[in-house]
Prior knowledge:
The complex is a heterotrimer of chains A (about 270), B (about 260) and C (about 325).
Chain A: H1 10-28, H2 32-57, H3 68-88, H4 95-101, H5 104-108, H6 114-119, H7 126-145, H8 152-175, H9 186-198, H10 208-217, H11 225-231, H12 242-264
Helix pairs in contact in A: 2-3, 2-7, 3-7, 3-8, 8-9, 8-12
Chain B: H1 3-20, H2 24-47, E1 51-52, E2 55-56, H3 57-75, H4 80-87, H5 91-94, H6 101-114, H7 117-131, H8 139-165, H9 174-187, H10 199-206, H11 215-222, H12 227-258
Antiparallel strand pairs in B: 1-2
Chain C: E1 4-16, H1 21-30, E2 34-47, E3 52-56, H2 63-70, E4 78-83, H3 92-98, E5 99-103, H4 115-126, H5 130-144, H6 159-171, E6 177-181, H7 189-204, E7 208-212, H8 216-222, E8 225-230, E9 233-239, H9 240-247, E10 250-256, H10 263-269, E11 274-277, E12 283-289, H11 295-306, E13 310-314, H12 318-326
Parallel strand pairs in C: 3-7, 3-8, 5-6, 6-7
Antiparallel strand pairs in C: 1-2, 1-4, 8-9, 10-12, 10-13, 11-12
Amino acid sequence: MADPAKTLTARHVNGVYWRGLQAQIRAITEYPADFWVMASSGAMWNFLQFAFLSVLFATVPDVAGWTYHEMLLLSGLLTVSVGSTALLCDGVWSTGQMVLKGDIDYRITRPAPVVVQIATTHIGMQGFGEVTFGLVMIGYAWVGGGFGLAALPIALLALVCACVLECALMTIFCAVNFWIKGPMSNFAFMFVDLQSNAMRMPLALFPVAVKAVTYFVIPVAFVNFVPVAVLTGQIGPWWLIGTPLASAAALFGAVGVYRLGLRSYDSSGH
Amino acid sequence: MTQFAVDRAFATLSFKRRLAYKTQWAIALVIGGGAMLVSMAMWHNLIGDGTLSGYDWDSMRAYLIIGFMTATVVFGAADWHIADRILDGHIAIDLTKPVDFQRARAAEYIGSMISTIPSVVVGVVGAWLLFDPPGPATPLAGVLTAASFLLVFPLAFGITYLSVLVCFWTKRYLGIMWLREALLSFFSGMMIPLAFMPSWLQGIAWALPFPHFTATPAAIYLGHVDTRGALGLLAAEAAWAVGLWFAGRLVFNHAVKKVTVHGG
Amino acid sequence: MPILEARSLTKTFRRPDKASGFKGAVKHLAQRKYKNFTAVDGIDLAIEPGESVAYVGPNGAGKSTTVKLLTGILKPTEGTVRVMGRDPHTDRVANAHDIGVLFGQRTQLWWDLPVEESLKLLKHMYGVSDSDYRRRIAMFDDLLDLNEFMPALARTLSLGQRMRADLACALIHSPKIVYLDEPTIGLDISVKDRLRAFLRELVEGGTTLLLTSHDLADIEEVCERIVVIDKGVIAYDGPIRELKAHYITTKAVNLVLDGPADVPALAEKFPEYEWAAGEAASEVTVTYESSRFTTAEVLGGLTGQLAPRDLSLSEPSIEDVIRRLYAGELTK
């Protein structure tokens, strides 16, 4: 019998993660009606964002200097990143529930990171609609805005980093439930909602304090605003470094906060 | 106990239950208020001193606050309780009781809507202090706007109830709820005033009950329609509320007969 | 060399001490008071490889907390735990490979997936080889009828099926030490019997077992050693046999007589025994001290004089002993 690794390797963690997600996808195929309803609702919201921008720009030429296609790009990138959290780490939303019911116990006794196990307990099917539609929106905006092939690598970098950053921030806000007990994280809920409202707009619309917060406190600006602003030349290109930096920092933050949460976990409740 | 006393009992219970979640009202305020602030910022930038599609900055401020009010009351209501009853099979017990299912759920739902009033009040007072919106076009318009707002309660229930009844056929409710909320947000004018939309899109909107959540009360308040027009809109809103109520009864009776109940 | 060693193991919880209601919550904001609650107090425990240990105690005694400390879920406030030389809390991952856990009240199956999927996910998590996996599944099927519900979704299983599936999950990686917390709760007797038989085989195969249960029949049928915990402290630690022998000083015979039993008369006639009425009017139970009388003596004397229609012997009951231990009537 082979002697299993007594420590966690990146390969092992990766394996646990992707297998967990795959298993959820297989479960989804059991209920095709559910899938289509959820995927459509994800697409619908974002289709309506598209409709909103289209209707608005029929009357106005720009919003704080941002054109129609630039706004679409901003919106699309946000949509894809939020949609990706539903696909990649939807399970973290149940952190609060699992803490209350003591379901974390089993996860601690298994040889895999607890946060990975919990993140893969669920996939939000609306994410399929959101990501698909978001990518369509980005494609449409890219072509319509004439961003060109040369800038494609930036788009790819932005996409990957946006997803990682969003997942990490979501995880951190859900981890609040380790300390503030409850079946759901109200902070996470408010975070997503506020971000979905505010970050579709150019930051120039808001007071400077908002810019400071979204850059340096909760770095949501790096999810969609900064990359698009760099692409349109509104801010200097070296700001782009902030995107992978913020993503990496948030990722470490998420792992760290979750670990802290587990340390404070005292498994009360049966 | 008379029927209305029963209604009141359900409503009060629902109201109290919602208030029990002490943070709920604050969260509704943050989310609704945040959305309103973002909209204010955007429209202020776009409109400035001018007018867009018949809205100047004065009227847009009022419009957005009205939108905030109805959004808070509608999105803060407890539709999950109705959905859960069907999904977990609790309805089997409900059907054996001499209480009209729809009526009881309506009372509960409206009770939960009432529990969002504190958020609405705080939000409106805050918005009024920050943005100083104009008053109603005429005092009568103000009264009729209030009437329109009151009609939002049964109207919201009618739409929600019908959408929840889909649970008799599906296993989950979340997607249905999101679809309904998305369509409501857009076609009510909460996202953008209907006047901005091309006429064919406005046509679609007015064929649906959704505009009465924001476009109708705002139009009355801002004096975009005269008294006759306002009464016409109110009649339409009331007609939708009544029509949806009976549609709900039809679908419910059909559903109970045809479909087996979930749950062990 | 013990496989598990706990020394002066202590766990104290800090709970906020606040009055209920809104006023209490506000007061607590201003003045943070905490109450300390010691669930486990200075426990010493050593388990050798291959032992089957029952861990028994009344509700709130500290059983679950102890198990959580031993499995690394909780960190001790004081004292140490070593499982195969490792600290299960700080060396969580390495320890995880060698332990199997079953919490009877909760499932570790993925709720929306077939049982088969859950086991496969665990197979990969623990790094079980394909051949080992097949072999073990076959064994579980043999002993627990696992294949009967392998394709079923976890949320459609009956309690008995779920427990069997959870047991397979706990053992799929052939751990050296297994912790079972109420594994038979809510099960009917036939499933219980199967589980106990399965656990006996497990122990015979060399697996170390720590079992907590309120069902004392579980304990008698599966375990050799019993540790009794009460109010966070160990009240008894030794072989079950000895527990019975030490504390059970009486035996009993149940007699069914020809006519109604006159208990007071019988008690007068045979004062050296204790007499009590049985379930039916003609039934009576005789309790005698096993150190003074042998069963043969008692039976001989009584059957001769009373000519009972039927009789049965009562085995010494561990329930009584435990009950008296809980009640603090017995000292070690």
